[in-house]
Amino acid sequence: MIERTLQQIAGMLGSEISGSEEAIMIKGVSTDTRSIQAGSLFVPLIGENFDGHSYAEDAYHKGASAILWQYDRGEAPKGVPFIRVPDTLIALQQLAKAYRKQLPVRIIGITGSNGKTTTKDLVASVLGSTYQVHKTKGNLNNHIGLPLTLLQLEETTEFAVVEMGMSGRGEIELLSDLAEPEASIITMIGESHMLQLGSREEIARAKAEIASGMPSGGLLVYNGDEPLIEQALAERSLPEGLRRIRFGGGAGNDLYPTDIRMDADGAFFQINSPGYPELYIPLLGTHNVINALAAIAIGEAFGVQPASIAAGLRSLQMTSMRIEKLTAASGLTVLNDAYNASPASMRASIALTEQLSGFGSKFLVLGDMLELGEHEEQFHRGIGAMLSPERVDYVFTFGRLGRFIADEAAAQFPKGRVRAFEDKEQLAAELAALARAEDIVLVKGSRGMRLEQVVNALLA
């Protein structure tokens, strides 16, 4: 993490220290008094319903060595070393950018509607087989989180793999300009953020902003199965000599799988690139094999040997398991994918459940997909229409929008096999009464639906 004197930090911000505290050593940066570490710099941010300046003195007493203080917030607490700045958020971003420029680190940026975190973990694991690597922790991937990630980098870090998330146009461009990634990945274009952006074309344009901060001769790795990415890139002014690698399921890509097979815990696959053994990832689903291709492309580009790439994929450690395979005391298998949901991720999780063999009945528990804008009913009905009684046995839905899934599915399933609920306890009780030890249940919905409560009920 950043270790500089207060005077050096003031210089990086183009500001002056209040008082004569230049020699104070700063180690790390925090925006939350609950995570203050001794010696850190506290950056009080301002939101709609809070002002971090109110907690600045508390941060100092908890161990912060100094604070930033915004000009329009009145007088800083007496006795607390501080640097006065016009805007604390902009100062945080400016400090992160200045620190990044002082480091020899090579940065890999990752964006996309789905698969960012999984791809980040895959890339970090592949590069980590050969280099010293830092990756975004949790979901620190926005205009606050990414600067904090950059400020966590050690001086000896060789590669940093960072996520870039967004909710609107211009946000990825800001993050790319801060991080200046030498290589970038666009995982896919889905329907997330339709509420804010209105169309998949606009989402693709927003994701293509990741090229903004890239240097001449940089590398862009993107999903070649999605024509909207090519279209969005064609509309932009790109860095000179930008290299491109397309990955995906189709044979028209530069990198694609030639064979995929799954067991109960992961996926085995082969690729069209010569010199590779059969590869394995401890993740379920064809969509995760596609994510792994992006990591392979990055590994190859930075000199990681095929055997090391294979070892990195096999030893993957996930930030958080998005499809978590759990076993109840009864023996029932539960696929917990209740972290979040979009139409693309919903389709992928359903396809995975359909592909798995060796189980009795297959149950789908599907909740509302949120923030889809004016087409939300259409997207939910589309999920219901794709379901087949030949591939899954029961469909349980939860929520107002989930009922649209049930309405479409009911036209294709035998009576009683599709059930819509507004009460999670009732859903869990009826599901527990039907499901047997040899069965499998997928639980999938947006985070706001809190379907992990159903998972916990099944496990209990």
Largest sheet geometry: 6 strands, parallel
Query: Structurally, how many domains make up the residues?
Result: 3
Strands in their spatial order, largest beta sheet: 8-9-7-10-11-12
Name the CATH architecture of the largest domain: 3-Layer(aba) Sandwich
Nearest-angstrom radius of gyration? 24 Å
SS element count, helices? 16
Q: Write down the overall mean pLDDT.
A: 93
Helix content: 25-40%
Structural write-up:
With 460 residues, the chain is α/β, with parallel strands linked by helices. The chain contains 16 helices and 21 strands. The protein has helices at residues 6-13, 56-61, 88-102, 116-128, 145-151, 171-179, 194-197, 200-208, 227-234, 286-301, 306-314, 343-355, 376-386, 402-410, 424-434, 452-459; strands spanning 3-5, 25-27, 29-30, 41-42, 66-70, 82-85, 106-111, 133-135, 159-163, 183-186, 219-223, 243-247, 257-262, 267-271, 279-281, 324-327, 333-337, 362-367, 394-398, 418-421, 440-444. Strands 8-9-7-10-11-12 form a six-stranded parallel beta sheet, with helices on both faces. Strands 16-17-21-18-19-20 form a six-stranded mixed beta sheet, sandwiched between helices. A four-stranded parallel beta sheet has the order 3-4-5-6. Helix 4 (116-128) packs across helix 11 (306-314). The radius of gyration is 24 Å and the shape is globular.
